[in-house]
Amino acid sequence: MTGVCLAQFKAEIVTPTLNAIGLGGEAAVNLLTGTALAESGLVYLRQIGGPALGAWQMEPFTESDIWATFLSNARLSGLKTAMQAMLARDMPRTGQLITNWRYACAMARLKYYRSPDPLPAANDALGQAHTWKRIYNTSLGAGDVDAAHVALFQQAIEA
Hints:
Layout: H1 6-20, H2 26-40, H3 60-70, H4 77-86, H5 96-99, H6 101-113, H7 125-137, H8 147-158
């Protein structure tokens, strides 16, 4: 067997990370697990031919923008402190999108959190795929809400 065990990834990385920043719950856990599957297949740590990094394939600009325009809000000081606590001190934040799965997961969750759209139901693979495309992958991204991507979110739900 090669690769990452999806059930362990969900239970040991995604769930405790989202709980640590106070943005957990079954819907969020399934969405973030499915997002990692849709973005990297839990195979690639760096986008081939592009700037995106880590299991969630976040672009460095997006990571910097979340810090500059979202976590800078005084009402989010507790969330900002939780995010800072996840950082390793020996490397730049952007590089941690590859090496620090907790941080990368939390940053991906913040990309969804800063959208006003509610999360889809925990067991709604089609709704999660649409949310991923609209908020995370965006209209500029290469992903589509097709049978293959919906199946990835279903895998995340079942893991």
